[in-house]
Amino acid sequence: MNSLVSTSHLQLAAFALGTIGWILCTVSMGIVEWRVWHVDNTTVISSGIAWVGIWKVCFISYLYVSPGYREQFCHKFSGYDSFIPHEIYAAQGLLLIAMFMGLLGLAATIFALRNVYMGVTHKPLIAPFFLVGGFFYISAGLCVLIPVSWNFYSVTHNQSIAFPPSYYMPSSPAAQEAGAAVPVGIVAVILLLLSGTFSLSYRFPMTANTIMKS
């Protein structure tokens, strides 16, 4: 057991990094600030700033509230909205897949670490489950990397979105910048890829018994 424990320190670190990366992946899904739009017309968007996420668009307005008060208005996207750009649809699907794959990676790593640290007798399953966990971590990281990179590209090229009138949004901003969800997603990608690399690097220790059996 001591030899098993001494060879699985990186995999324990992989579990910790994978857990944080999975949490950040989940957090990035819920953050509305994927794109920060700066608009010139402040009649409805009183602050001149709107946040475009992958599930909804939000902005601050003073138009329909009492003076001195402000309210955040949000309009959720529908699956039937044809104006939503491809990168937002891709982010919705790929981040859900990443969250699911991250969970599978964590489950596989927990099973392998349980065998290592609790001396469970399923030793032949340790290495395969670390490898499976590493595969899921890397797959989850790539699923996060694609929408983060694609949306960042759209921001840097100031691409527009043809919002319908019911959204009270202009079709294109005066300027836009990447919101908080992008750096959160980048950190999640780094942690998930590191976790996957550490998990895939596991090598089952060769003992005298295993050499004699082989």
Describe what you observe in this structure.
With about 210 residues, the chain is of the alpha+beta class. Helices cover about 55% and strands about 10% of the residues. The chain is built from six helices and five strands. A five-stranded antiparallel beta sheet has the order 4-3-2-1-5. α2 (about 10-30) runs antiparallel to α3, α2 runs parallel beside α4 (about 125-155) and α4 runs antiparallel to α5 (about 180-200). The longest helix has about 30 residues, at about 85-115. The chain is elongated and about 65 Å long. The two termini are about 20 Å apart. About 35% of the residues are buried. Mean pLDDT is about 85; it is low at about 210-214.
Q: What is this structure, in a nutshell?
A:
With 214 residues, the protein is of the alpha+beta class. It contains 6 helices and 5 strands; from the N terminus they run ααββββααβαα. The protein has a 5-stranded antiparallel sheet.
